[in-house]
């Protein structure tokens, strides 16, 4: 089982990217689980036609521990296993608590033993990397962390904070940085800025995604690009990125 955490600034396109990566890998015959670790609980929306699914935190609030594994794991497009951690009522409670609760409940209820996923994606908000938001980095969860950024200042600033957190946690047996994904916004000197950041954090570029209106069109259809426009150049970019991430993680496994 390969476990991948993807971090990045809010609005940078993590959920869109991860959902397309999930579909790309599912099309290859892999069993994929995608865990949304954002309080908005919208990571997996395009994998199940936009229908609302129970969040783990809502289930715990309403039923304590009196619910089944199937109540929090929903099968979406291509059999992808969808989980949403959820969050507190706005203005009340800790947003990171949803992540901690979700990951603990998945383990307690035997999700990994039952579903036996080949790949697990954690979709994590990267504006804050503390408490529950660092949970997917911890030992036993993600093997590798990948950061999504554009060349925009605030996106690179958030990416730098994430890279710093990963470096600070390295002596605790947490996940290591697997690389950086450039999700283009077509700002001035974008590639140069991102390459400078990558050099500063001693990492590597694992893939680049172009800015394409077809992504918005697919989201309006409540689908991933690969489902809605499978023959598009953008679909091919997501598929190539999925291959790159898989190879990066497999090379790391081979070293062990």
Low-confidence stretches: none
How many distinct domains?
A: 1
Radius of gyration: 17 Å
The oligomeric state is single chain
Structure, explained:
- This protein has about 260 residues and is an alpha/beta fold.
- The chain has a single domain (about 1-250), classed as P-loop containing nucleotide triphosphate hydrolases (Rossmann fold, 3-Layer(aba) Sandwich).
- The protein is built from 10 helices and 8 strands.
- Strands 3-4-2-5-1-6-7-8 form an 8-stranded mixed sheet, with helices on both faces.
- Strand 6, helix 6 (about 155-170) and strand 7 (about 175-185) form a beta-alpha-beta unit.
- The model has no long low-confidence stretch (mean pLDDT about 90).
Summarize the helices and strands and which ones pair or pack.
Blueprint lengths: L1 E7 L5 H14 L4 E6 L18 H8 L5 H4 L1 E2 L5 E4 L11 H13 L2 H5 L3 E7 L18 E6 L3 H17 L6 E8 L6 H11 L4 E5 L4 H7 L4 H4 L4 H23 L1
Parallel strand pairs: 1-5, 1-6, 2-4, 2-5, 6-7, 7-8
Antiparallel strand pairs: 3-4
Helix pairs in contact: 1-10
């Amino acid at each position: 089982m390969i476990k991948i955490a993807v971090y990045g600034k809010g609005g940078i396109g993590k959920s869109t990217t991860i959902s397309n990566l999930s579909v790309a890998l599912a099309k290859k015959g892999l069993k994929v689980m995608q865990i949304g670790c954002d309080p908005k609980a919208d990571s997996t929306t395009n994998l199940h036609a936009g229908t609302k699914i129970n969040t783990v935190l809502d289930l715990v609030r309403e039923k304590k521990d009196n619910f089944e594994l199937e109540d929090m794991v929903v099968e979406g497009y291509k059999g992808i296993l969808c989980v949403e951690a959820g969050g507190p009522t706005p203005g009340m409670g800790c947003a990171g608590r949803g992540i901690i609760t979700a990951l603990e409940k998945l383990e307690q209820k035997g999700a990994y033993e039952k579903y036996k996923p080949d790949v697990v994606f954690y979709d994590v908000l990267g504006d804050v990397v503390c408490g529950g938001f660092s949970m997917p980095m911890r030992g036993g969860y993600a093997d590798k962390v990948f950061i999504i950024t554009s060349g925009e200042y605030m996106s690179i600033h958030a990416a730098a904070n994430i890279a710093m957190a990963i470096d600070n946690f390295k002596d605790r047996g947490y996940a290591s940085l697997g690389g950086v994904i450039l999700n283009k916004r077509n700002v001035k000197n974008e590639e140069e800025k991102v390459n400078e950041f990558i050099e500063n954090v001693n990492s590597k570029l694992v893939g680049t995604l172009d800015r394409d209106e077809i992504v918005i069109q697919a989201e309006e259809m409540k689908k991933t690009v690969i489902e809605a426009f499978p023959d598009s150049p953008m679909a091919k970019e997501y598929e190539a990125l999925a291959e790159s991430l898989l190879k990066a993680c497999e090379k790391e496994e081979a070293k062990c």
